[in-house]
Amino acid sequence: MTGQVVFDPLLPWVVIWGLAAIAGAGAVLAFWRGLSGWALRLLAGFVLVLALAQPSYQVEDRAALSDIVLLLVDESASQRLDDRAAVTQDAVQRLEAQLTARPNTEIRRVSVPDGEGNSGTQLMTALSTVLAEEPRGRIAGIFLLSDGRLHDLERAPNLPAPLHLLLTGRESDWDRRLSVRNAPAFAILGEEVKLTLRIDDDGAAPGATQSDILISVDGADPQRFTVPIGRDLEMPVTLPHGGMNVIQFTVPTADGELTDRNNTALVQINGVRDRLRVLLVSGEPHAGGRTWRNLLKSDSSVDLVHFTILRPPEKQDGVPVNELSLIAFPTRELFLEKIDDFDLIIFDRYKRRGILPSIYLDNVRNYIEKGGAVLVAAGPDFASADSLFRSPLGQVLPAEPTARVIDQAFRPRVTDLGLRHPVTAGMAEPETWGRWLRQIEVNPNTGSTVMEGVDGKPLLVLDRVGEGRVALLASDQAWLWSRGYEGGGPQLDLLRRLAHWMMKEPELEEEALWAEPTGQTMRIIRRSLEANVGTVTITRPDGTQEEVTLLETSPGQFEALYEGADIGLYRLSEGALEAVIGLGPAAPKEFEQTIASGAALAELVATQRGGIMPLEEGVPQIRSVRSGRPAAGRGWVGLTPREAFETLDVRQTALLPAWLVLLMASVMIIGAWLREGRN
Prior knowledge:
There is one protein chain. The protein is an alpha/beta fold. The model has no long low-confidence stretch (mean pLDDT 86).
């Protein structure tokens, strides 16, 4: 129970003080004029002014509240290195024992795990949250048990009490770490890109100047190099294939270093083609020729060379051959010397005319077998004696013409196999497509028929030849889709898919296995022309294996989700197919800095004169200190008792009730009048 005098003024304090000044001035004037009752006048004025302030005596019944001590325990990944977890747990027990022995003290223990999404240690976020939940007037002290490596210092709150950092780790700790300073997400195939790496030794390092580094691409056998420590390293890299390329950099573990978790970095770079180089060979002018050209030229990533025959040799008009063009077309350069520079060659209604000798067409066949791609858009000439099938190209074409040209309207349709093939899978329903008006009858010899026309006859046949690929479109009517005839159709989409399949883009392979990472989760995708696929064997970074069953999500595509517990390189295999994928960040934030240090928190700790104490020297003793005084010293840390309380009851008694004011003022005024009246 406590008591005190309180005021509840009837008028603003400025007015009350003004009235007091007037009363004082009146008393001074009376004294100056020699009035003997000036003292009584002064007392009467004082009583009236004091009555306006309404003084009361207030008595409170209070219940004392305990002090609260916050104990934040860092349980992030870096705190599990060496013996830090055991040291932290021992320190927590000793602190709790000291705090429990203190009278009127409560403990709030908060565990701080790894932040979500590689955000690191969120100590200040946790501290702000717990301060928002507790009354700040009862906080007597804050303890952080951590290695001092936090990643949200910008969220540090205003501290209501001393903050003490009890630092884990040892003075003799040292660590070697590999960091990726710069790595592009995309790179152009065939062009060199540079990655920037750095190897650093932190802490009490032995002083080495060089280290080995192992570099592995897509899980292949690593190559070993010796590089300097403490300098940025520029690594030139040329991607070996399109799609995702996984490059793993590893620094061998050195004796005595704190951890090897930061000795490996994964870089995933998507390989893309700069430009698609296409050679379009048109046999004669026709309605679809300009459509092919417009489609190819509309794509800014396509470099097009169009070789077209506008005047067939059999046309006899007497014009000398040397006057048929402004310059001679470089057929030898295109079909012999520079043919390997093209990604795709398209023959549109071309037939043997003697313009391209058989040696040129034989070189095109060699180009396919060595990895090139050829698309034949067949017209009526493909069924004639001058057909390309009668040339050296016939050895690699997937279908043979029967010499029959079917002049009949039909609607192209995707075959059952085509529904599973990446070139035609997922295309619009054929009922919405416009009809074509002509088809060349062919008998497929090899390959996959993915589209059919009249009476189910092959329309689009795809095949692999050697290391290259061939596609045969048994009609010259695809241009009707571009013109919107009867609603048109997906000619542009079909052409693009064909081109990318023929250039062996990974996402359009018929038999493919790959994975798409999201954090520590990967979506495993298996594409196949078969109705069923086997289980996928996953080899984790530690070498253990696990079988995962895939479910068919669409025709020809099987998927499964897999959660990887560890950061690192995962190997996938199913039958003869293999893939690699990296899960987790290239450099986990928790292991970017592993040597314990209080430098980051030093300024914040100093705001309330707290301390940074290495637990290697023992758990400090706890003392009570007054607010504003130093709260840390050699072997001790301080808490500020808050003496907080809860008010249970309040009673007030007026010191100047109205009757007393009236009596006192009247007596003094009358006394002054009587005293002055005698003189």
